[in-house]
Amino acid sequence: MDYPPPGAPDPGAPPDPNATPPGYSDPSSGWLPPGWEGGPSGYGPPGGTLPPDSLPPGYGSPGEPGGGQGPWGGGSGQSSAYGGPYGPPAPRGPRRASPLAIVVGAVLVAALIAIPVVILTSSGAASQATSLYTRSMQLAGDSVGFHYVSSWTGGGEPTTTYAGDAGQKDGTQVIIEPTEYGSEQYQELLATDQTLYFEGNAPALEDELGVAASAASGLAGTWVSLQPADAPYSDAEVGLTVASDVGVTGFVATSTAQVTGAGGAKLTRIKGTVAATSGVPSATVQVDISPSSNLPVSIVITYSDGTVNTMTFTEWGTAPAVSVPATPVAWSTLTTSSPPDGYGSGETPTASPTPTPTPAAVGAA
Fold first, then answer.
1. β-pair type (224-226, 329-330)
2. 192, 298, 207, 300: which is closest to 240 by C-alpha?
């Protein structure tokens, strides 16, 4: 009788369901077709390399790009769930494999090793969406500049609008928002030496810069300069640079789809969710990117309270043009104090309740 050589499988033994089929690898995220690579996202095209698991300085993990509040959050009285950066005039590195290729590959391998197709397909779709979203954030964060428009609607409040041009070290933005101080209207400029210039109406001066109400009307329309050490600077500076702009903090990508945008443009839509955090309700998110550049075209965040934040991005690779005011007034020379809930909170002090008078006794003279 012939015996198998030492170390060889026993031909009479039943097949091992966990054995690796010939020519396949076993990355941590699942099985892949021959020639595909495993990596941070779990998938990669033959011969390609996947983006690194980490993001450029200032970025968070794929689940939390940016890691902080975005423009339109952190300052100007908004408590948004996004913050992070956006990118370059041209894509770098290999193109991502199409969602269809990933799903088809998963189905074929699942059939071979008898795992439920629905589980692997769902995992592959989420992995592909996360990889594509992360790549888009990396590319966007390297951009020399772009133009953005952001609007907040719903929730029973008037529309708030932000528009500007963000650069790597400078930027401009114009903001119109309703607050308890009134309708704030102001514009900001950030020079490359990091001096920030602010010009606005009286409500904006009171809320954003803490200018005393008695002096605010006289300063309306006057340029005020701020330095990084000035108290309102960190809130006012948000949204002026690429690194403080777009991205969705806590975003969990779940799927991608091909959609048609304005003018018939073919776009890839990444869908996902954001869990509720302190002061911020849960939300559904859709990120539309251009397949030709992998750069964002729009982001729509729909919160469970009915508020919707819509952002659009254009002019990728265009640096902002910042014209510095000639004779600004230094913020440090003004009479100021921090608003009750902080700079840019939009909230005025709550009036003390008026005592309820005691009714006169019935039948009193």
1. parallel
2. 192
Cα dihedral 49, 53, 57, 58, rounded to 10, equals 130
Residue-wise pLDDT for 68-101, tens only, equals: 333 333 333 333 333 333 322 222 222 222 222 2
Instruction: Detail the DSSP E strand segments found in the chain.
Output: 145-153, 160-167, 171-179, 182-190, 196-200, 224-226, 251-260, 266-274, 283-289, 296-303, 308-314, 329-330
Sign of torsion, CA 220 223 227 228?
Answer: positive
Measured CA distances, 61 to 131, 201, 240, 300, 354 (Å): 11, 39, 22, 21, 50
Residue 297: which residues within 8 A CB-CB, separation 6 or more? Answer: 261, 265, 267, 288, 289, 290, 312, 313
Pairing mode, strands 283-289 and 329-330:
unpaired
Which structure tokens are listed for 213? 């109400």
- CB-side neighbour CA atoms (13 Å) of 10: 4
pLDDT digits (tens, 9 = 90+) for 148-173: 999 999 988 889 999 999 999 999 99
Three-class SS state of 32: strand
| Separation CA 146–CA 39 (nearest Å) | 31
- Give the tokens for residue 102: 């990933």
Q: Specify the pairing of strand 224-226 against strand 196-200.
A: antiparallel
Strand, coil or helix: 313: strand
